[in-house]
Amino acid sequence: MSQVLVFVEHQEGVPFETSLQATTLAGTLGDVSSVSVGACDVGGAARHFAIEHPILFDYAPEAIAEALVQLIGAESPSAVFASGTERGNEVMAHVAAVLDLPLATNVTEVRPVDESWELTRTRWGGSLLEEASLTGPVKLATVAPHAFEVSDASGSVDAETFEPDLPEDLERTRVVERVTISEGITLTTAPVVVSGGRGVGSPEGFGILEELAALLGGAVGCSRVVTNNGWRPHSDQVGQTGTRVAPNLYVACGISGAVQHWVGMMASKNVLAINNDPEAPMVTKADYAVIGDLHPILDAVVAEVKRRKGL
Amino acid sequence: MRSLVCIKRVPAPGARIVLTDDRQAIDAKHLPFTTSPHEECAVEEAVRIKEQHGGTVVVMTLGPAEAEEQLRYAVSVGADEAILLATDGADWDPQATAAALAGKIGELESGDGRFDLILFGNESADAGGYQVGIRVAHALDRPVVGGIKGIDIEGETMVARRETDAGFEVYRLPLPAVVAVKEGINLPRYPTLPSRLRAKKVEVTSSAPDHTAGGLRMLRLVNPPEVASSTTLLGQGPDAASAVADLFEELGLL
Amino acid sequence: MSDAPSSASVVVIGAGIVGNSVVGHLAELGWRDIVQIDKGPLPNPGGSTGHASNFIFPVDHNKEMAMLTLDSQRQYEEMGVNVTCGGIEVARTEERMEELRRRMSSAKNWDMEAHLVTPAEIKELVPFINEEILLGGCYFPTVSAVDSLRAGTIFREKATGLGALQTMANTEILDIETDRGRVTAVVTDKGRVEAEYVVIACGVWSPRVARLAGASIPLTPAVHQMIDVGPIPILQESGKELAFPIVRDMDTFMYERQTSGSMEVGSYAHRPIFHSPDEIPSIAEARLSPTELPFTEDDFDTQLEDALELMPEILSQAEIKYAINGLLSLTPDAMPLIGETVEVRNLWSAAAIWIKEGPGTGRAVAEWMTNGYPELDPHASDIARFYPYARTDHHIRARCAEHFNKTYGIVHPREQWASERDKRLSPVHSRTAQLGAVYFEAGGWERPHWYESNASLVDHYGIEDRPHEWDRRWWSPIQNAEHLAMREKVGLVDLAPFVIFDFTGPGVVDYIQRMTVNNADVTVGRSVYTPLLTGSGGFKADLTVLRLGEEHFRVITGAFDGPRDKHWFRSHLPEDGSVHMNDSTSAYTTIGVWGPEARNLVSSITDHDLSNEAFPYGTTQAVDFGSINARLFRISYVGDLGWEVYVPTEAGRLMWDSLWEAGQDLGVVAVGAGVYGTTGRLEKGYRLMGSELESEYNPVEAGLARPRVKDHDFIGKEAYLSARDEEPAAILCTLTVEDHVSPRDGIKRFPTGREPITTPDGGRITDRKGRPSYVTTAGAGPSVGKFLLMAYLPPEHALMGNDLAVMYMNELYPVEVAVAGSTPLFDPDDARMKG
């Protein structure tokens, strides 16, 4: 079988779930060689390349792409995958641009047909699918997050160090500084997101959502209407053009559930909708629902939670 | 500062996306068209940079003749010039799009001087390819960063910030440069009555670029299967508070 | 989430302002087991109510619309959802100023506060307006804005509180079942509901839903463009939803309405944009709501400039945050569609109703369903008013396209349609056209109003023209000349639009007697003129009944009321099939021959004995003219000797030619409907349905009560009997205008109708039932040398010789009561027509 490269993102050697999903898909198409910046332990890969270069002490998409291009030159894989994350898509776009090859992003299915592939990829943030054909001597694709279950990854291999030859001017697009602003719980890490939509009614209306989020150790989110109205900062927005979240519980207050919002929170493990319209898409898609005007309901819920917490 | 913003005309669907019978496009009979949200912010950002540092903002799109509507909208919120690369209506793949844009940019720069900054949206709302801006940057041999939610121009340098879980990361790019921005970088303004009227009068320069298809070809669109779900009703109104608190306990949140 | 109940007394389809007010009023009137269905969520199911501008300018020239609007405003006020902010209609042109003066008269009629204001006064009320481009305005302090969604919820809650209502949201109507022309059930995606009655109140979707039952609701969804502009500091600082009066910029067909910190700018100026009810997107497919369609900005360019010119100070900086093409309902004549559909029994329409008249119309529909007729006469809103041709999509669109831009337009009371003409042509049309007929529309027919070929008669009779263009519009002095020529010699009148119904069968005598006030059980060959009444004793129709056989009656009624009368007759036919009704309108054409020479003329072409003894007044006989089988009816609506000549349509032209040729030596003239419908009629004091006769007045008040009441029962008899026992609250009078000279312009002016009759110093006159006195018909009386008005007056004013005034264009003209009651001003003994 041919060799398939997978660009793996990791944090201190632990691969991201999304990268393992990409590895899973790649495994159905060939022998997987994983590749990462610095060492990383990827189960299920036949080979592993660790890219080492002084420039790459922090994220530098152009330079990483150049390294991948050189590795592709050296290894002649039949395909290269990354996960359809912000960085995965960005790095692969650079690779595609340098090699002038087509790139299919956010793929959910691949069906090799002779020399080309037929594939399915997401559009509109996942609310629509596209069937497409992909040609080229090396197939480039990113894998839509959560489209694949990670298969049992067993065994580990020794990393092969790959030292690319990177021109210095690639430093021009490297992170030069990191600023930490939010201590505490963020939208993406919160176990609970209490999110509000048009139904909250006003900026002040979010007070009770903040109170509930604080009681549950969660964060406050909102829909696009809310940020467009200037009620909340854009960093609170959950959705296609905002942040994508996958908490243990997503509480949707007065959110109707338009496509744009749904794709941002559909990975949540549990969804509780509070809405006065029992037929709102959010209610019919949710796991749990309370029907009625949201402010009296939230007041009562906060009071009950406080009582149980002995506050 | 001379900036160029590349935008895309897209339909704005409701809660259910309906496809045309041939499954080649969204049935937009009843839908408004808009500029991809990230690109609306790109236009706004370019206008703000112009307001701060002076210069001009050119807006360009590759699309059907109707995309003139989006170009004029961009003019109505502050862009100065509008350029249409007219297609016959079908969506071009990312390689073809980037080639046409890069070709036109070269032409424009040889006439009127270089663009200090070329702005893209991070990805289009519909196709979501994540690559046209980067391909154009490579074609022009200019630095590019994506996912940007903050820009400052400091002389010949662009300071660009990208949001992370913990805060943000910072890039410093020499100009001329390319940047792909995300919604949230600003809150775009709306047109005013006079600006809308002015935008009506601006001449849109139109040309038809050569189409060299790339290797990714859309075959058809498909609605994803509806996920069947059952909703457990916890109650009506404030009386449901106790059931909600029980759920919190069950999920280990209390 | 809830399943449908298996049956209901009434299913109301639609939960916008109309459906909600219908269920509220039905419940209040005692209905139970009401089921309300909407395919959208509550409280805003996505129809036109959800995006409406929600403001109410109560003034309207049309009485019915004004009354529906006033009632609605009162209901909103009672529900606590009416915010009074005042409103100004501003004028940029002198023509519009004149129109605003006319509106002052209408405001006086319907007792609405109104003031003409100067540009400076407008500026005080609306400080950000550019008063320099204005000539003035009309300020209405009672203009208000309402919360129509909240009002709908209150209506539903009231009905639910009475235990009368179950509302099913998010429920699709799949079918409406009927059995032998009667509605039986509504099929939804949540089950089938058997229903005795069904009301279609779903706005722009109504035609689509009605079609499920085989019924027609003739409206088209049309676009009304709106933008929302803000934030605007002066509006924000007001801290109110509505701190400034709503401005209607009448000459640009636009309005500016504050909504908290921003300004909503709406327009009726853009090209008419229509949609098909079948193509409105579903809730899921729509970007906003199904009735908020993508804004087409090219259509709004001029409006932006106009709005900027009017309010440059605030509109030049503010941003356009929201812009839609909102869907609303338009009908061919811009009036609502209420009442039982003509196609399906117990299937009712409550459609094409805007926010401002919603609750009032809802009440009218509920009363109609409960009592057989509403308190407020729904004459102009009755869905039965349309002929079949007027229910076609083609006609609906053509007419709506024509009147859309007249929403804020200046529409002359006599104004004729330009579109959809030449659709119903009389068999003598080619002849009347040769004579230079100027056609007015009557029930879709082209009816000659006067003939240019008679122009030379104007000088002959010395008829004065009218100096003011408005008074002259859609009028000609030739009408008066034709009138005098007919009175002197003889005239031919093309009466093709007459509507004719034949009733036969064993139950026909009882049936006709039950319908008519006056005794119709006359000998064969005789006729009776009679009102038809509503259950509460008001006028439903007036018409003529001919007895053509022991079991055969023929009813002849006017073109304007034909379809309404047809539905009234049809819906009262006995269930046992003992009466058969046939619409013979297209089978016969009618030619009127009247004047002192009429007998000589007709006699010259038939051997039939037409002497007074052989053919007395009020009788009908079959008469042959050569090979033409005609029926002559000796009657007159113009007060002269003569006949209505009925012939098979195919023989119409031959009949006309024969009469025309025979009349040449007798000085025959072609006479238009200007004489037939106005001047001749007025001189004889004859009443017209829709003008003098309406359901809010009874025969005693109209002077049409006969000395005796027949024994047979009839609709409205009880109310009629009690009306005879009490002093009438008003008496229909004929008045003469004593001085036509305008105090302002010094030129002679001529009222057109619907103006207030006031005390000599301009005081409003109302009767003890609160009904105002206004002109029901205005027109010349060439033979009496006076300009005549008809009006109901309270008894204390209904005295011969009493001096009063008519308020025309906000000026007073002296008038005198010439006749109180029905005595004709011209030839009071009827000697001319009975001789």
Q: What would you note in describing this structure?
A:
The complex is a heterotrimer of chains A (311), B (254) and C (835). With 311 residues, chain A is an alpha/beta fold. Chain A folds into two domains: 3-173, Rossmann fold (3-Layer(aba) Sandwich); 192-309, TPP-binding domain (Rossmann fold, 3-Layer(aba) Sandwich), CATH 3.40.50.1220. Helix content of chain A is 27%, strand content 29%. In chain A, helix 2 crosses helix 3 (86-99). Chain B is of the alpha/beta class. Chain B has a single domain, classed as HUPs (Rossmann fold, 3-Layer(aba) Sandwich). Helices cover 29% and strands 31% of the residues of chain B. Chain B has six helices and 13 strands. In chain B, the strands form two sheets. Chain B has a nine-stranded mixed beta sheet with strand order 9-8-7-10-6-1-4-5-11, with helices on both faces. In chain B, a hairpin with a 3-residue loop joins strand 8 and strand 9. Chain B starts with a strand and ends with a helix. The mean pLDDT of chain C is 95. In chain C, the strands form seven sheets. Chain C has a nine-stranded mixed beta sheet, with helices on both faces. The N and C termini of chain C lie far apart (76 Å). Among the domains of chain C are: 7-195 and 220-330, D-Amino Acid Oxidase, Chain A, domain 2, CATH 3.30.9.10; 426-498 and 587-689, Gyrase A, domain 2; 499-583, Alpha-Beta Plaits. Chain C is built from 22 helices and 39 strands. Classes of the chains: A alpha/beta (311), B alpha/beta (254), C alpha+beta (835). The interface between A and B is large, with 98 and 84 residues. Strand 12 (177-180) of chain A pairs antiparallel with strand 9 of chain B, so a sheet runs across the interface.
Key attributes of the depicted protein:
heterotrimer; A: 311 residues; alpha/beta; Rossmann fold; 2 domains; nine-stranded mixed β-sheet; five-stranded parallel β-sheet; 8 helices; C: 835 residues; alpha+beta; D-Amino Acid Oxidase, Chain A, domain 2; eight-stranded mixed β-sheet; 39 strands
Question: How would you summarize this macromolecular structure in one to three sentences?
Answer:
The complex is a heterotrimer of chains A (311), B (254) and C (835). By secondary structure, chain B is an alpha/beta fold. Chain B has helices at 37-53, 68-76, 94-112, 132-140, 193-201, 241-250; strands spanning 2-7, 9-11, 33-35, 56-63, 81-86, 117-121, 144-154, 157-163, 167-174, 177-181, 204-207, 216-222, 232-236.
